[in-house]
Design a protein that fits this description.
The protein is of the alpha/beta class. The protein starts with a strand and ends with a strand. 18% of the residues are buried. Helix 3 packs parallel to helix 4. It has a six-stranded parallel sheet, sandwiched between helices. It has a three-stranded antiparallel sheet with strand order 7-8-9, with helices on one face. The radius of gyration is 19 Å and the shape is globular. It has six helices and nine strands.
Length: 207
Amino acid sequence: MRIGLIGLGDIAQKAYLPTLSEYPSITLVLCTRNSQLLNELARKYRVNDFCSDYKQMIQFDLDAVMIHSATSSHVEIATYFLKNRIPVFVDKPLSTDYSACEKLYDLAERISQPLFIGFNRRYLPILREPLSQESEVSPLLSIRWEKNRHNLPDFARTFVFDDFIHPLDSVNRSADVNTGDLLISEQMSGSVVNRIDVQWQSGSTFI
């Protein structure tokens, strides 16, 4: 299987490249506009096929692509590969624009091509196990979930979609949440967010 990786920044280097390179059945094709990084990673992982423009990747006869580039580029790149009938994996968030997400999913459904959004922490055993330990004898009553950012204030949409989305997504997998049950507070520095706290209630218990 030939898988193209587009965007070779922090998450690609920490999570995906080391993992995928361990599978003999996978041949990687790399793409980034950073030519120095591209050559370094191609040598490190013994990748023969690489390019600096994602549109050039079509020539490598890909079975799928994984998009790890900046959020602002996700829709454009995903649309290009879906229209070329290539299955697409995109790191969260797919987009910070809801209508753009809907259009991409409509496109994928219309042409019957997979479009998968990568919330990598959903699949960490250390995080999955506590959320699955619900039973009549020992039900899950409450969760406190923290994600700490050191000195990284940002605009609210970026803060939530690029980072805080992890605890929201992970906890909400075990709860039936609607917006009317949410209690949200924030700490701001001018127009940027330093901290967000979200509580919601499941039955009579706050989570």
